[in-house]
Specification:
By secondary structure, this protein is mostly helical. The protein has a single domain (about 5-95), classed as Helix Hairpins, CATH 1.10.287.1080. Helices cover about 65% and strands about 0% of the residues. Helix 1 (about 5-15) crosses helix 3 and helix 2 (about 25-45) packs antiparallel against helix 3 (about 60-75). The longest helix has 23 residues, at about 25-45.
């Protein structure tokens, strides 16, 4: 699935069972919540915070996908072409950091 296809898929869900786009600040709050869930899971796996007794392990891939979904919804609501924007970011990093990192 391309980024453009993912954006169209989110549009389809939002227009159907999703009930419409949330306002930007509500989407931002939701994004922060989802990032918090990812942070919690990574902290359980690799950090110093053990899970509570009986607390289920979350699927890391789904936590990342939740973030992606909300990010796409926010981009769609703001009419941002993420595929084009992502290409611009890759170009920026390619130019800016071409000599920055050592290669093995």
């Amino acid at each position: 699935m391309t980024i453009a296809e993912a954006q169209r898929a989110v549009v389809g869900w939002i227009r159907g069972p999703g009930g419409g786009y949330w306002p930007p600040l509500s989407n931002l709050a939701r994004l922060v919540e989802e990032v918090g869930e990812l942070a919690r899971e990574l902290n359980h796996r690799y950090g110093h915070k053990p899970k509570k007794a009986g607390e289920a392990e979350q699927e890391l891939a789904l936590e990342l996908a939740d973030i992606l979904f909300v990010l796409i919804a926010l981009a769609n609501e703001q009419k941002v072409d993420l595929e084009a924007a992502f290409q611009r970011v890759l170009d920026k990093y390619g130019a800016r950091d071409a000599e920055r990192w050592t290669r093995p």
